[in-house]
């Protein structure tokens, strides 16, 4: 599930598009896919970790969220898995260990992937409350939205997938 944020008044989540990667009674974890870290490509990231970029494309690195912004994650297809890879909704996977970076650089990693720093997290029941309060709009995650859509337009595209023109969204409501 991809969550798009109409507005909750928090600038960290303005026009957010977050892939929910884990959800349970104790809380939820998502990876933000709506913006990239300026001046940081994949090559520079792996070089900082002492890894030769090898055959990896110099893809942008996304701002995964405000929690632990120095911690890296890779959202990827199910064609690769490591010891700490977690399956996401039976369609995608999330890996937060360095082995996925080495595999991508050597050409043995997942064919489709997104690198991110940080994550968004919710305590138990918090995300459900926000969904009930209409803070988030939920749309199905698709390969096109995740892997083929630029970060800068992913928020808008997530609404358009559901047939909604986000230009028509209102932040508040009136009284009658």
UniProtKB/TrEMBL annotation:
Pfam families, A to Z: DUF179 (PF02622)
Listed Gene3D superfamilies: VC0467-like
Superkingdom field: Bacteria
Database matches in InterPro entries: AlgH-like (IPR003774)
Family according to the record: Belongs to the UPF0301 (AlgH) family.
HAMAP family: UPF0301
PANTHER family linked to this entry: UNCHARACTERIZED PROTEIN YQGE, UPF0301 PROTEIN YQGE
Protein name: UPF0301 protein GGR88_000889
């Amino acid at each position: 599930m991809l969550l798009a944020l109409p507005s909750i008044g928090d600038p960290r989540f303005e026009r957010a598009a977050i892939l929910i990667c884990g959800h349970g009674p104790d809380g939820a974890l998502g990876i933000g896919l709506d913006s990239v870290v300026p001046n940081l490509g994949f090559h520079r990231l792996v070089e900082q970790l002492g890894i030769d970029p090898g055959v990896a494309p110099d893809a942008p690195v996304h701002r995964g969220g405000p929690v632990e912004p120095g911690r890296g994650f890779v959202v990827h297809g199910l064609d690769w898995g490591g010891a700490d890879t977690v399956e996401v909704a039976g369609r995608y996977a999330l890996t937060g260990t360095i082995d996925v970076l080495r595999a991508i650089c050597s050409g043995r990693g997942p064919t489709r992937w997104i690198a991110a720093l940080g994550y968004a997290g919710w305590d138990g029941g918090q995300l459900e409350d926000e969904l009930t309060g209409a803070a988030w709009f939920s749309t199905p995650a698709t390969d096109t939205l995740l892997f083929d859509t630029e970060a800068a337009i992913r928020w808008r595209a997530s609404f358009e997938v559901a047939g909604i023109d986000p230009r028509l969204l209102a932040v508040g409501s009136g009284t009658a």
